[in-house]
């Protein structure tokens, strides 16, 4: 097993050619360390390298992020294409601005709670178990929401992005080769990101839906590049004006419908029977015949006739 140790660093550096300083002095001054593609499987105690700012460990066999607590000055960490399954042990890296973890076996984006300065996060192309997707811990997303500007989550079977809504400082989102298909969801989330300039959703189901480009162009007012194609500002303004006009016409039509229902409450759901000609009647008499007034009967006369009829 190859371990990254101070002795390995010493043997691989140009320190042996220098006689002006000791190994300890050299390691204390070291700011950049590149051990990519060296079959590294583990990281040993490197605490003497306290001024380290950039660490390249990509294309190795590392399975765990460990022994980096000393690196409080680290700003760039490159650990893509390893065997890492959990994002952990990064809480001391308060100055970290760029984190590269693509091509590992991570299933949950977590462990970022203390990275308040993180500007770039790359977790594309994780080797996920069959049928699983990359998910996001809400606490980590909330913690980096005020700083993160570039996020790469491509090729991770992601089918929704609601959990990313707090990332209102994003300027670049790379989310190609996923399973995103709900255009309404995408419009809702992206419309809240007022600084988004570059967006890549190519090779998602949503990419093939009608009006896909038009809808996202109007939803993202600051977008300059969608799926590798620049957005013409004149075209965007035309689409925005067209959408506003369409919504205004729809609103006017709805208002007319409502007003019509108020003015004619019988228009919907109620139909009067056909009216038949009615003969003229007096308030108390029988229907008139040939225009003559009807004959009025007094109640006392009706009553008397009834009595006489009974006697007869």
What's the N-to-C terminus distance? 133 Å
Q: What coarse outline follows from CA principal-axis ratios?
A: elongated
Strand content: 5-15%
Q: Major sheet: size, sense and barrel closure?
A: 10 strands, mixed
Number of helices: 7
> How many β-strand runs?
14
The topology string of helices and strands comes to: EHHEEEEEEEEHEEHEHEEHH
Poorly predicted sequence stretches spanning 5 or more consecutive residues: 270-274, 276-312
Average pLDDT taken over every residue: 84
Radius of gyration: 39 Å
Residue share in helix: 25-40%
Class inferred from helices and paired strands? alpha/beta
Strand order of the largest sheet: 2-4-5-6-8-10-11-12-13-14
Provide a concise account of the structure shown.
The chain has 312 residues and is α/β, with parallel strands linked by helices. It is built from seven helices and 14 strands.
Describe the structure.
The longest helix has 31 residues. The C terminus is likely disordered. 24% of the residues are buried. Helix 4 runs parallel beside helix 5. The chain has 312 residues and is of the alpha/beta class. The protein starts with a strand and ends with a helix. The strands form three sheets. It has a ten-stranded mixed β-sheet with strand order 2-4-5-6-8-10-11-12-13-14, with no helix packed on it. The protein has a two-stranded parallel ribbon with strand order 1-3. It has a two-stranded parallel sheet with strand order 7-9. The protein has seven helices and 14 strands. InterPro entries: Leu-rich_rpt (IPR001611), LRR_dom_sf (IPR032675), SDS22/Internalin_LRR (IPR050836). It comes from Triplophysa rosa.
């Amino acid at each position: 097993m190859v371990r990254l140790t101070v002795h390995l660093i010493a043997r691989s550096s140009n320190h042996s050619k220098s006689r002006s300083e000791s190994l300890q002095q050299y390691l204390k001054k070291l700011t950049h360390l590149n051990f990519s593609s060296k079959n590294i499987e583990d990281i040993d105690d490197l605490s003497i390298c306290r001024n380290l700012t950039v660490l390249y460990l990509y294309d190795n066999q590392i399975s765990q992020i460990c022994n980096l607590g000393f690196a409080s000055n680290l700003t760039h960490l490159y650990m893509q294409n390893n065997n890492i399954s959990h994002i952990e042990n990064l809480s001391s890296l308060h100055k970290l601005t760029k984190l590269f973890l693509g091509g590992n076996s991570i299933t949950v984006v977590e462990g970022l709670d203390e990275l308040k300065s993180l500007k770039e996060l790359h977790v594309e192309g994780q080797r996920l178990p069959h049928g699983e997707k990359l998910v996001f811990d809400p606490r980590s997303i909330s913690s980096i929401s005020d700083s993160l500007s570039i996020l790469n989550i491509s090729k991770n079977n992601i089918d929704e992005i609601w959990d990313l809504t707090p990332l209102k400082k994003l300027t670049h989102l790379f989310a190609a080769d996923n399973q995103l298909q709900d255009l309404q969801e995408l419009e809702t989330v992206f419309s809240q990101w007022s600084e988004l300039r570059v967006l890549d959703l190519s090779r998602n189901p949503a990419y093939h839906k009608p009006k896909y480009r038009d809808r996202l162009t109007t939803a993202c007012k600051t977008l300059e590049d969608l799926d590798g194609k620049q957005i013409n500002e004149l075209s965007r303004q035309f689409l925005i004006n067209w959408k506003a006009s369409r919504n205004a016409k729809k609103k006017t039509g709805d208002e007319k419908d409502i007003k019509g229902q108020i003015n004619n409450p019988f228009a919907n759901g109620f139909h009067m029977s056909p009216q038949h000609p009615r003969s003229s009647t007096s308030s108390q008499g029988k229907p008139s015949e040939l225009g003559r007034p009807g004959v009025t009967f007094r109640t006392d006369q009706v009553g008397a006739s009834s009595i006489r009829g009974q006697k007869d």
